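Expect chain and fold; thus:
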Amino acid sequence: MKFDKINNTLKYIRGIPKSIYVNFRLLDFNDAIKLPIIVSSKTKLSSLQGEVRLLNNRTGIVRIGFGNVNTVDYSYERTILHIDGIIYFNGKCKIGRGSKIEVGKNAILNIGESFIASAKSTIICHKKITIGSDSMFAWDTLIMDTDYHNIYNFNDEVINKDKEITIGKKVWLGTRCMILKGVTIPNNSIVAGDTLVTKKFHQENSIIGSKPAKVIKENVYWKS
């Protein structure tokens, strides 16, 4: 146990140079000086042309590229940040090792208080993604509000435009969930592992599962 604590501390120390760079690229000077964002040394900074806005600012309130998942090897997994738009952090946030965050130009990613994303989670935001407070994503989840490539009809009109995703408060996404554009997941929902969600849901306190997704159980809640 003592060795694990020392090892984790060393990982944070190794991330300090890169964390300084991230903070001063994405934040105003007065915010950046407090180092609210701590990133792992194994984080690839693909692009930092956007910005981060914080509701609360204290050292280490946002931690990216850390955490322990026994099925993920820290030595080989790289976290990737590609931020050309705006990320709002409304409180504590932990994004696990090997995760990928892409926020396109003019896009907005709004992350609520006490958010946890486990290892190898992927968020691709080209329009707007909102994640409510106290939500948790298991490993290998994918959330994307875009198809990346446009599809046209014979009038040269785009028929697959990006669509906003809204994930409510206290939502638990199971491992290998895929949340696609236009989706709404209501408060206090559980999305079962390996579920494909492509539409809006409105019933709170339910379990959503299957392919395609449907409500499979009602009147439930979960504890972190």
User: Anything to note?
Assistant: The chain has a mean pLDDT of 94. The radius of gyration is 18 Å. Helices lie at 2-14, 16-26, 29-32. Residues 2-14 form the longest helix (13 residues).
